[in-house]
């Protein structure tokens, strides 16, 4: 369930495009809702309708980047405050990944974020399980922008970007990426990743409070429990680790180490609950496999590689064991959800960006792709805190001072 705090902020944000609250909420069933209700929320269908209204009315194909880059961390509710109170950026990101499902939007359900390090680089990887065809690129760009804004909120500093890799074709609005990412941007990459200096993970957070972090973490746990219908905490935590490392199955020993317990303790906890570690792993991999197979964009061979199988034959054998049919039989017999092919023609119609240009001294990043050249355009970055919105220079986003932050995030 999406919180009302996010809906209220989005309604205010879209006013900068000249879109009234009534127009934005048309057909959502939210026209007469009280946005100040702390326990209120909206359904998935209402959320999708809200986003489609925003895209259609704004005619901004880069709206996902704009929303993600300007979103206040307070709209993540308990998760946002848990991240703010973490000791380091690494801890905040790990908190965000572990409880990403609590945001109630795409994150943690349709789009997954994970963290790892490769040498001197930290890698935040965005992976799409499945999503409505017309909102996939929006969801990914919203998360990419959210990574920047959340980092600014929790550290008070910009993320030291090295490279953005986009696992989709170059969109028509690719030029807008220059306004948000002062680094190299590569399209048609194998995976969607944000790469930055790994030493930044050790940054101490100015609002760190171990007691407050524990309180907000407990609130996130309650939200997860409610969403999972009371699923056992041990089982849920193992599932979370499986999703963070979906490209290979974690051994019981590795999972125990990540959960901070001994392998013997983990085995005992699972035995007490009448479940097996292998059963949980198979269940998670089977769920991911079904989601991937709903997309015609992914071949069986590519899915096998994503799930960490040594070859497609092993994957086919495992999938048959899980479901009683082969992957190809599954695709023929199951009704498919709309494919999440990232089309070069998305979104329909010519892009139109709100007025506003980047500030002087903007650093430009190189954008590389094997696809056609983009159409140029400008993008508008908007501050938080409810004051009149105005375009922000790129320096406020990724190059030094930031006008709308006192001191992350799907």
Give your account of this protein's structure:
The protein is of the alpha/beta class and 410 residues long. The protein has 2 domains: 2-207 and 352-399, Alpha-Beta Complex (H-NOX domain), CATH 3.90.1520.10; 233-333, Arc Repressor Mutant, subunit A. The protein has helices spanning 4-14, 21-25, 44-58, 63-70, 78-84, 89-98, 136-155, 177-180, 210-227, 233-244, 252-259, 263-272, 277-293, 300-306, 312-323, 327-333, 394-399, and strands spanning 2-3, 41-42, 111-118, 121-128, 161-165, 184-186, 192-197, 367-368. The strands form 2 sheets. A 6-stranded mixed sheet has the order 3-4-7-5-6-8. Strands 1-2 form a two-stranded antiparallel ribbon. Helix 5 runs antiparallel to helix 6. It is globular. Residues 334-365 and 367-410 have low confidence and may be disordered.
| Global morphology | globular
Mean pLDDT: 77
Number of helices: 17
Summing up helix and strand content along with how strands pair, one would put the structural category as: alpha/beta
* SSE run: EHHEHHHHEEHEHEEHHHHHHHHEH
What portion of residues belong to β-strands? 5-15%
Radius of gyration: 21 Å
Q: Can you give the helix content as a percent range?
A: 40-55%
Please give a handful of descriptors for the protein shown.
410 residues; alpha/beta; H-NOX domain; Arc Repressor Mutant, subunit A; two-stranded antiparallel ribbon; 17 helices; 8 strands; disordered C terminus
How do you describe this structure in short?
The chain is of the alpha/beta class and 410 residues long. The chain has helices at residues 4-14, 21-25, 44-58, 63-70, 78-84, 89-98, 136-155, 177-180, 210-227, 233-244, 252-259, 263-272, 277-293, 300-306, 312-323, 327-333, 394-399, and strands at 2-3, 41-42, 111-118, 121-128, 161-165, 184-186, 192-197, 367-368.
């Amino acid at each position: 369930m999406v919180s009302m705090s996010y809906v209220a902020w989005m309604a205010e944000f879209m006013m900068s495009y000249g879109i009234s609250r009534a127009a934005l909420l048309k057909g959502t069933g939210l026209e007469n809702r009280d946005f100040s209700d702390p326990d209120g929320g909206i359904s998935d269908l209402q959320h999708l309708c809200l986003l489609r209204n925003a895209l259609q009315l704004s005619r901004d194909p880069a709206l996902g980047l704009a929303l993600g880059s300007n979103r206040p961390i307070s709209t993540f509710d308990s998760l946002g405050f848990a991240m703010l109170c973490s000791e380091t950026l690494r801890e905040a990101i790990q908190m965000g990944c572990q409880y990403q499902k609590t945001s109630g939007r795409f994150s943690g359900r349709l789009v997954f974020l994970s963290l790892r390090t490769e040498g001197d680089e930290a890698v935040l990887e965005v992976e799409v399980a499945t999503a409505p065809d017309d909102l996939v690129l929006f969801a990914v760009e919203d998360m990419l922008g959210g990574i920047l804004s959340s980092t600014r909120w929790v550290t008070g500093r910009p993320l030291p970007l090295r490279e953005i890799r986009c696992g989709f074709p170059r969109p028509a609005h690719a030029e807008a990426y220059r306004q948000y990412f002062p680094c190299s941007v590569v399209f048609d990459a194998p995976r969607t990743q944000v790469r930055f200096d790994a030493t930044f993970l050790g940054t101490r957070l100015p609002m760190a409070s171990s007691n407050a972090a524990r309180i907000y973490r407990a609130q996130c746990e309650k939200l997860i429990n409610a969403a999972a219908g009371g699923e056992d905490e041990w089982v849920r935590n193992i599932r979370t680790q499986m999703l963070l490392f979906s490209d290979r199955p974690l051994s019981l020993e590795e999972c125990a180490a990540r959960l901070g317990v001994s392998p013997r303790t983990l085995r005992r906890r699972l035995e007490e609950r009448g479940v097996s570690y292998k059963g949980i792993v198979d269940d998670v991999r089977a769920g991911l496999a079904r989601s991937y197979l709903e997309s015609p964009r992914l071949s069986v061979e590519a899915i096998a590689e994503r799930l960490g199988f040594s070859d497609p034959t092993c994957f086919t054998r495992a999938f048959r064991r899980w479901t009683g049919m082969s992957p190809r039989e599954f695709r023929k017999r199951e009704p498919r959800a709309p494919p999440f092919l990232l089309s070069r023609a998305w979104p329909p119609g010519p892009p139109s960006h709100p007025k506003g240009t980047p500030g002087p001294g903007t650093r430009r990043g190189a954008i590389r792709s094997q696809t056609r050249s983009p159409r140029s355009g400008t993008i508008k970055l908007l501050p938080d805190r409810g004051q009149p919105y105005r375009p922000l220079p790129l320096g406020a986003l990724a190059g030094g001072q930031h006008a709308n932050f006192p001191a992350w995030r799907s």
